[in-house]
Amino acid sequence: MAYSIVRGPNNTVWGFWFSFKPEQMHLLAVAVEKDLSAEVQRDIFSNNYRVVPNTSNNQGGFWVMLDSRPAPGETLPKGKDRIYEYWKCPQCGSLLKKGRIDVALAGATFVGTATCGVCGAKFPQSDVYAGKYDVESPGKTDETAKKWWQFWK
Ligand SMILES: [Zn+2]
Fold it and tell me: What's the pLDDT score for residue 57?
């Protein structure tokens, strides 16, 4: 199978390119073969990736991008390397999930208001998707804690 690894700054693995539309098992096979990080393997295991047809060059195939990272040709708010899935209501502190990450990655400009489902506070959608209230997803924090505790053995 033909594939390549897509890397971002600091050599971070952002995803892959495949000549065909891959299944999860293909991604896992690559992660194991190339001995990629635990974070990459977890993203694959938990289906935290998007499969995007390649339209940015004439190579064809598909981009597989981990954790809402942009595929080549997609755009992100300035200074961001991904669009975080969660945001925190600045009024009540509730953790809320963004529903339209794919659309945001396609470069859409959001208008209108996002309403906190817990306290009802309203914020501009554009601020939410620009990352003004971003937080790491809860899973990331758990993983970091686990890794940290390993040093106490
Ligand atoms: Zn709220």
Answer: 92
